[in-house]
Design goal:
With 124 residues, the chain is mostly beta strands. It has no helices and 10 strands.
Length: 124
């Protein structure tokens, strides 16, 4: 089974940057998408960005131009570079892998399994 572990979260001031990583144990070479999601207290989990096996990228409107998703050459580690952070970006950030390839859009949480435990990002 594939397991995902996020790292790179922390506390920063508005305008700062963080880079999140998602380490994967097991073979993720067959997954369709690897995505980053976030959830703030009292809010639903929302898609932040996702990257396909072919390198296509997808972003939530709220992060376009500020966040960049990428992956290393062997596709085991997706990164999320977050610049110009805002207080509203404060949330627990999770990475997830889509091995199903179902329809419904890149941000459909139902298509992703497994999920990591998350890394906290706090912007003040």
């Amino acid at each position: 089974d594939v397991q995902l572990v996020e790292s790179g979260g922390g506390s920063v001031q508005a305008g700062g940057s963080l880079r999140l990583s998602c380490a994967a144990s097991g073979n993720t070479g067959s997954c369709y998408l690897m995505g980053w999601f976030r959830q703030a207290p009292g809010n639903e989990r929302e898609g932040v960005a996702s990257i396909s096996r072919y390198g296509s990228t997808y972003y939530a409107d709220s992060v376009k131009g500020r966040f960049t998703i990428s992956q290393d050459n062997d596709r085991d580690i997706p990164y999320l570079q977050m610049n110009s952070l805002k207080p509203e970006d404060t949330a627990m950030y999770h990475c997830a892998a889509d091995f199903i390839g179902a329809s419904g859009g890149w941000s459909n949480t139902m298509r992703y399994n497994p999920w990591g435990q998350g890394t906290q990002v706090t912007v003040s």
